[in-house]
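Recap for those who missed Tuesday's class. We walked through two folding examples back to back. For each one, the amino acid string is listed first and its predicted structure tokens come directly after. Nothing is annotated here on purpose, so try labeling regions yourself before you check the end of the notes.
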Amino acid sequence: MAGRGTGPDFVEALARGLDVLACFGPDRPAMTLSEVAAAADLARPTARRLLLTLEELGYVRTRDGTHTLTPRVLELGMAYVGALGLWDIARPHLEALVARTGESSSMAQLDGSDIVYVARVAVPKLITLRVDIGTRFPAAQTSQGKVLLAALDPDELAAVLAQPSRSGLPPYIGRTAAQLADELVEVRARGWALADEELAPGVRSVAVPVRDGTGTVRAAANVTVHAAETSREVLLAEHLPALLRTAGEISGEWATWQRRPHVELAARRAEPA
């Protein structure tokens, strides 16, 4: 929350405004002023001014003393995704993969010690976890996170894992740091990662890397299944090969997109007749 900036150019007011936006979520879609102040660790007058500012900018709607986010907030996240070109490129490939497997597929990127979903094509399944664009989970508990962590050098990995998760989920205690390090070595060597009911009961998934034009791992794509319906053997023998092909197609198309000519043309001024 606010108050953690250390740099001389850190703008506390901006940080507090972002804290207010971050307070809202699936479990808190609407809040009173008091609830926002408590969630963002702000004084009521400060929270009030920030909410009024965000309302004037169109990011917050207030009705009967209750505050909710507006769809304009989506612009903040989609600007990032759109700038990468990831969603437009990945969507048709993920849709084809889902049609082939009958299972949900997503793409995520690393943000601190969490993954954040940047693309998703879902099918109705009795899985307890709700996943949307922008959802974050602890990286070490997910197949996508393991792929992304395995792509880091040792110093980067240590720094990332030292950061607390902002997902709101409790710490995972089913594996030691040494065991995770050994698993990441295997993931790096074989090119895919498995998460078998580590994030939540009944959730099983396999993930592979998605690379940019330089060969750098920039995202991870997965296939998620219900553990009671799909065995590990089926997931790895049938869905993993299809996922690898899909990730390769996305990586290749993304590399081509990044090499596209990009020229900004200044608007011509109208010349007098």
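Example two. Treat it independently of the first, because the proteins are unrelated.
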Amino acid sequence: MKLVLGKKISIGLVAILTPFMASAQAKQPPLGITLERAIEIALSENPSVKIADLEVQKKKYAKQSAQSALYPQIDAVGQYSRTLKKQVMYMDGAFDMQEMLMPMITGMEQTFKGVDPGYELGTLQKNIAANSPPPTDSNEGITVGRDNNWTGGFQLSWPVVVPTLWKSLDISSLDVELAVESARSSKINMVNSVRKAYYTVLLAKDVLNVYRKSYDNAMLTYNDIQHKYQQGIVAEFDLIRADVNAKNIKPNLIQAQNSYNIAILSLKALMGIDMDQEITVDGSLLDYEESLYAEILSVDKSLDSNSDLKKFDIQTHQLQKSLELYKAQYYPTVAISGNYMYMSMNNDFKFGDYRWNPTSSVGLSVSIPIFDGFKKNKDIRQTKVSLEQMKWQREDVIRNLQLAVDNNINTMSNYVEQVFSTKDVVAQAQKGYEISQKLYDTGMGTLLDLNTAQLGSTQASLAFNQAIYNFLASKADLDKLLGVEISK
């Protein structure tokens, strides 16, 4: 009895614990994320990057499709037509069969006479005349053709000299090049977004730590004052102020926690991972402090890798090829054509009795443009004007890019100064808070001084973290502007 009861209890425990065990197994461990890892995942999983890569593949297929026009085109063709009313053919002058055959008849008369001396000349002619139809008038036509007409076979067309097609292929190649650059631009933008999202997470985490530390200090102060109040050492007013100070910090702590959660979700979305996947972001903004000056000194202001400028140059090259295409329209084109066909004409549908007659031909066609209403000339002039416009636009683009780079570098330099100045403020504010804490504990300071010192320390820490973040975000924007593909 005990053994049976024990088995039942074991089975019940297994049934109860199985869902929890399965849930524990299904829950994935937190994914540790560094900046390099975040960029790597985003470049492989983000949909916008995949779309850009597919666009490159699509342009390559379009180029290959255009190249197929250089090869011979062979088609199998078939045609059937039913004659509803046959064609009528007319001949000028009377159509006299006897007169047309007269030389032949005369020769046959002489042959018969030579074979048979008793043959009377003119006998054959009289017999033919008696059985021949009367001469046909020129106004009476002769019906030709049959009811059913069948045609089937192969046709060949091969453009041999087509200058416009060659220039079109050059433009298709540039389309592929432009798609590749657009894909690179998409990756650069993605890296920029991921970097700034990662830095935002670090900022949110550091801000959360600052407010958590401030709240913990406020609670320690409140507990200490409450203990002293219970002993009658401090006034109730100090206890109330300490309680109010701690409660005033709590909303900031909650807001900081929400900001951190939102920053984490934004980073997940950019990385293209499951939103339910738990991640832990390693490091803090303080890790980047020592490399700030080195980042500025290593900046290369060259615009050779700027994606917008590269795409602008490719589009200019495409316009130049379009100009060459319009000029190529003045050149002649040469094409080879041919066919091999079988034809049959019948008045019934007895396919087994059909006679199929083969026919074939090969031809060479040359087309020389002579006059088109000056269309080609106007197209050429219009394209030349567009090229002149793009020349001046490029100068303006370069000027604006250089201005943006210089402004970004100046902004980064200002943020570096802020980082090092606020770093000293953080140290002084922390020292001031510690001094205020000791003075208050010894009765030489007031709670107001302590709260003011704590607030100053919190604000200094927030300003320090914000300055580092501003520098890193500006550096990410500068790398995007300069066309740096991946920067760690």
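Answers for example two:
The first helix runs from residue 2 to 26.
The two ends are 69 Å apart (CA to CA).
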